Fold:
Amino acid sequence: MSSRIPRGVWALGFVSMLMDISSEMIHALLPVYMVTVLGTSAIAVGLIEGMAEAIASVTKVFSGALSDWLGRRKLLAALGYGLAAATKPIFPLASTLGWLVAARFIDRVGKGIRGAPRDALVADITPPEMRGAAFGLRQSLDTIGAFLGPLLAIGLMWFTANAFRTVFWLAVVPAMLSVVVLLVFVREPERTKTQRTARMPLRSAEMKQLGGAYWWVVTIATAFTFARFSEAFLILRAQSLGVPTMMIPAVLVVMSIAYSLSAYPVGVLADHMDRITLLLVGLVLLIVADVVLAYASTITALGVGLVLWGLYMGFTQGLLSTMIADAAPASLRGTAFGVYNLVTGVVLLAASALAGFLWDRHGPEGTFLAGAGFAALTVVALLAVRGRFTPRPAAA
Structure:
């Protein structure tokens, strides 16, 4: 099936991969840098990470709606990737926490500008019956970057004797390459007459056109997001178990490999079977991952927890995007992804802040056991609505 996926989806996947290599080279080290070098508390890390993602989510609403109004998704995607690439040099130049926070927030604004138009563009260029595979592929390629970045960070930290800023400088290169690939290899399809009719997409009348099925997906995604928190706490968990600073990025490598290897096969399955079942499998994986990470006392246990966490992400994230694409009208697809990302981003802020609070008060056990509890509640809620909402590919 992969050979039939449109070339534009492959190109967008490689664009995401390159930007993720750049971002994860920095972000895999940033929490440790803030805590060990700048003396930042765990709750502050949680708030910073959550606020950064919330800023990206708010921006996605407006960029998604603007892409519907303009009928130009590639333009906004290029602007977002370009802004993120332009802000990467701030990280090595920053000398205080304030500068790092500013760089992190500006970088997330770039992510917000590109996110919804890019996902809407994937849906635009992919046949409905292949959307699960297309979003799974894009997610897999994106996540390959998420583990190549930390791998490069590990090697460079060893080679440079833990020179954080040198690694941050080298991260600028793949970010710039991602913009080039987007501009050269991604072509936007012709807009249909229906897609050109969207005007002022954020008006209440337009929001109502998103439909009940769309809002059910958003509700489900909200519950999923509250059951997890920023991956920064996976890094802090590794540090609490005595993982050497140079090897800390391996946390994201292990998690991302499991994520990448599972996202595409799950996407293919989602085109042929009940999607709620796949989401439930993902939640069970998250519950087990949280319990393992809560009580981990060895590096082996940490690795098992990270693999399970990555599998949870692979079973759910691309699938939720597919469900959004199927449920939303084509003319409001950018708005739909924007609103979806806004809601889940705000919830991620709350979840990350709560995780940081629990970490400071009760240690890693409190944080991860709370995550397992929220995931278990989400399983119960999903089982309760399963008979009322069974999302299907749009072609059906």
